[in-house]
Amino acid sequence: MNISRNEQLALHVLALGGRILHEREDGPKITAVTCVTREGMILSDFDMTIFNKLRRKRLIESRSGGPYHLWKRGRLSVRAQLDNQGA
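Above: the chain sequence. Below: its structure as tokens.
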């Protein structure tokens, strides 16, 4: 599976305990997303296109309308790196 550098960075953040917060405007459509690390820092490179790619590849999931977390398939797709700074 082809995973871009920004997608890989987001997966690393999620693997380390981060989450993706989403906002909805009137209805089921998600209008804004924010990727937050477990320390509370915001991943600046994360946007709706990366979010949609991760969802389409079924690497992340949300349960009962809560924040998105890494799914088992996503955990298996994360490449091991010494750090997750993205080079």
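The mean pLDDT is 86.
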